[in-house]
Amino acid sequence: MIVEAVFAAIFGLLFGSFLNVCIYRWTRDQSVVWPGSHCGACGHPINWYDNIPVASYIALGARCRHCRAAFSWQYPLVELLTSAAFFAAVYLEGATYLAAKIAVFAWLQIGLIFADLDTRLLPDQFTKGGIALGLLMAVLAPGQQGLFRLLFTEAQPWIMSLMDSIFAAVFVSGALWLIGVLYSKVRHREGLGFGDVKMVAMIGAFLGFAPTLITIFVGSILGTVLGLGYIYLTKKDPATYQLPFASFLGAAALAVGFWQR
To answer: Do 46 and 152 share a structural domain?
Structure first.
């Protein structure tokens, strides 16, 4: 088990490196295929030996080899978090579809967390693409079956799992969208972006109905406590500051997703 988990951690570093590309480019409507990796300051192509996850960041002193512009601390952090998530998924579940489901879910959540922190944008590639992946994983690695287990006792587990995922994706995100609409009408300003609604639909597709409700509850608590604490400490205006709710929601989703196991 530990050997497979170590290999998963190595793959996690590689997927984390690619995730950094996705976070940067998808939030700016750029292709992740072309052009190749390059320095954002001087535009010089980054050689393969300067693009090794974590190791190159340390070896280069977090700076471009050519122009010495500083690289963000986000790059190694995303790589290490993704590696840790892949390791934990395989360590807990072995080399199974369920481990793959957890790893993919974690990859998506980490991407959304840092995209939200960086730009307050939630790319459709993460949310809409994640909904499709979540429904696929509900079939390959059946999870929550909720009330459907009681209503359809003779149905195959994957069918009930898929039905629960569809119900969670539609119902919970729809309810959240309605709350956002009502808030905007009462307060005359947007309180919830549609990207958050799509993110909740993706979480529902992966986790199912009950865990998604728990995720929203935990994410709301985190956003209230940590968000308001940050606003208070930095003396920002609560009426105008845009709280990165998706980041708190993503952290809650990761916690609930692993806690389920």
So the answer is: no
Q: How far apart are CA 105 and CA 203, in angstroms?
A: 8
Same domain, 60 and 147: no
**What is the pLDDT at residue 112?**
98
Q: 3-class SS at 70?
A: strand
- Quote the pTM value: 0.92
Q: Is residue 160 part of a domain?
A: yes
Total domains present in the chain: 2
The 3-state DSSP class for residue 75 equals helix
Of 77, 95, 113, the last residue of a domain is 95
SS3 state of residue 185: helix
Which domain range does residue 136 map to? Answer: 122-261
Of 178, 220, 223, nearest to 197 by C-alpha is 178
For residue range 91-143, list pLDDT tens digits in order. Answer: 999 999 999 999 999 999 999 999 999 999 999 999 999 999 999 999 999 87
Low-confidence ranges of the chain (pLDDT < 50): none
What integer pLDDT is reported at residue 228 of this predicted model?
82
- 233 and 131 in one domain? yes
Checking 59-67 for CB contacts under 8 A at 24+ apart, the result is 64/39, 66/39, 66/42, 67/39, 67/41, 67/42
Q: What pLDDT, on the 0 to 100 scale, is given for residue 146? A: 67
